[in-house]
Amino acid sequence: MLCAGSPSVNGLAQRRSPGGPMLLTMVASICLALLAAFSFAAAGAAQHRASHALAAAGQPATTSSWLPVLGVLIPLLRHPIWLLGLLLNVVGFVLHSTALHLGSITIVQALLCAQLLFTLPLAAAQTRVMPTARDWLAAAAVGTGVVAIISTRGQTPQTMHRLGLLPAVLLIGVSLLVLLLLAARNLAAPARTPLIGTAAGIGFSLTAVLIVVITHQLAQVGVLGLFSHWPIYLLPVSGLVAAILAQDAFASGSLPAAVTAMTIADPMASWLWGAVLFDQTPPLTPAALGGMTAAAILISAGIALHAATMARAKATRGQIAPEGGL
After folding, report:
1. Pick from 127, 124, 144: which is nearest to 135 by CA?
2. Terminus-to-terminus CA distance in the chain, angstroms?
3. Is 144 exposed, middle or buried (0-12, 13-18, 19+ CB in 10 A)?
């Protein structure tokens, strides 16, 4: 993504041509991010079905108040539908990593909100009920918010000159995870789902940050050289923790509640980490702050409206809409 001594992600492309390669790279990143969003949506649908069913059946019971899903971990690893979701997650991870390597973390993480939009045709296919006007309104709000993010920050050059702040960013992120787990520890399952989902979203945002750093280091030092840099050792830990938190959110409550929390927390936290670590020009101007605030409001409103619609549909039809995410 970055070249040695280059001030931006696409510095080399900019030196070769004043716009063409940079535009193609951005388009490729957007397409890969959308494909990753679809893969994560399908994976979330499969894994929620397995996790929630096993947790509801109490196989086996667990007394843990931190992460009750650990009590059904072994049955999950044997469940064919959950394993299908795992495969789809792997595909999504490869697409997501490539998108992060090519483009801005702000844009890529924001585009992952599209996984909620993919639930419209998925839900229609399962329930044979066409999406409502409210569904499309929610989709329009999320899409407009994503466009606002791209137009506001999409052309901001990316830099690796502030990687000295990476430990501080990771420490803040981990502290937020611990606080959310503490808050959710003694809550009943439905009430704890949004908190655990938010923690999972923050966990995935930290994983995205590590992917950006590692893919940059890969281009600089090669595969063998990666193992002399500490971020490579944190990546599997970060991904595993976020995945477990996501499964716990799936098992403890409704899919809309879990996915809404994850899908809001991930891009919003990623925007913050990206602005601190990677944006060559931090979004401190009134125009940048106003545009990002408007985008955050639109995306959050669209996600909340969509989740409310899906929850209402589940209550009235007695069916779970195939929704998912990372």
Report:
1. 124
2. 23
3. middle
Phi-psi region of 4 (alpha: psi -120 to 50; beta: other; left: phi over 0): beta
Full DSSP string of 188-254: -HHHHHHHHHHHHHHHHHHHHHHHHHHHHHHHHHHHHHHTTSTHHHHHHHHHHHHHHHHHHHHHHS-
DSSP code per residue over 262-289 = HHHHHHHHHHHHHHHHTBSS-S-SHHHH
User: Minimal CA–CA distance to 6: which of 20, 22, 26, 30?
Assistant: 22
Per-residue pLDDT tens for 54-88?
776 665 444 455 677 777 778 888 889 889 988 99
Q: Are 287 and 296 in contact (CB under 8 A)?
A: no
Block residue for tokens 């509801």: 56
Which range of 82-96, 185-199, 264-278 scores highest in mean pLDDT? It is 82-96
pTM for the full model?
Answer: 0.73
- Gap between the Cα atoms of 18 and 20, Å rounded: 6
SS3 158: strand
- Tell me the β-bridge partners of 130: none
Can you tell me the distance from the alpha carbon of 297 to that of 294, in angstroms, rounded to the nearest whole number?
5
Residue 3 identity: C
For residue 16 the two structure tokens come to: 């070769």
Helix axes 119-127, 20-57, angle to 10 degrees: 40
Residue 109 CB partners (closer than 8 Å, separation 6+): 205, 208, 266, 267, 270, 271, 274
AA letter at 19: G
Q: What are phi and psi of 279, to 5 degrees?
A: -70, 125
Beta bridge partners of 187: none
Predicted local confidence at residue 169, as pLDDT: 95
Amino acid symbol at 293: T
